[in-house]
Amino acid sequence: MADQTVALVTGAASGIGAAISLAFAEAGARVILGDIDLERSKATASDIGGAATAIRLDVTRPDEWAAAAEHVSAEAGRLDALVNSAGLLSLGTVEECSLEEWRRIQSVNVEGTFLGCQAMIPLLAVSGGGAITNICSVSGVVGGHNLAAYNASKGAVRMLTKSVALHCARSRNGVRCNTVMPTFVRTPMLDDIVPATEQHKLERQIPMGRLVEAEEVAALVLYLSSDAARMITDADYTIDGGATA
User: Fold this and answer.
1) Nearest alpha-carbon partner for 40 in 25, 56, 29
2) What does the alpha-carbon distance between residue 144 and residue 131 come to, in Å, rounded to a whole number?
3) Which of the residue ranges 7-21, 57-71, 81-95, 194-208 would you say has the lowest mean pLDDT?
4) Span 112-134, mean pLDDT?
5) CB burial class (10 A; 0-12, 13-18, 19+) of residue 38?
6) φ and ψ at 41, to 5 degrees?
């Protein structure tokens, strides 16, 4: 990856977003970590070192996306990769899920991705094109009885990605858009939902017998953001150890 490559990663303070940010930095890119928790994302950027910097970014707020676009333009002068990694996971059946919780999940997972694409496509296009990678989930294609809000949100992200990809292809702006859909990933967010002592039950649902590592998701995102993937758009990549087979 060229040294002048600039990437913006949301939800970058920890978990998958932090692993993706590290992968970009190690590949020589300038990476901007966006997260609602600015202090934590600053600490992550400091740990990464190099050209990693952090900004506050609440992905549900159009004004903060506008500020992020201005920051990227002023500080980096270009944008080559956007990774919409910010997301929330919530358990609950359709009868248990409150309207408030439903809206909270859709706001971050769906609207946050929509706003990110909308705000950053012009910057990517001005830079000569680039890649948007939306972190989705196998829950976007496989249902769960207690994942009503999450299933709906990730299904929406998957279909939004297709619309974005086709719009950009028709516009001939050089911007590609793909989804990465992991199964259970070993992250702090998973620990908050399922205690580490119980995660062996999740592993039994995966044919390859283990959880996905955040670094494995990051490696695929890095590939999709590179020139080697310049003809890949509107693609869904599962990282699930055979879980959806």
Assistant:
1) 56
2) 30
3) 194-208
4) 97
5) middle
6) -70, -30
Quote the CA–CA distance of 31 and 183 in Å, as a whole number.
Answer: 25
Average pLDDT over residues 129-156: 97
Domains in the chain (CATH in brackets) are: 6-239 (3.40.50.720)
Options 24, 65, 150, 237, the catalytic residue? 150
User: Catalytic: 150?
Assistant: yes
pLDDT at residue 3 is higher than 60:
no
Is the Cβ–Cβ distance between 7 and 80 less than 8 Å? yes
Nearest to 81 by CA among 183, 229, 214: 229
Q: What is the pLDDT of residue 196?
A: 85
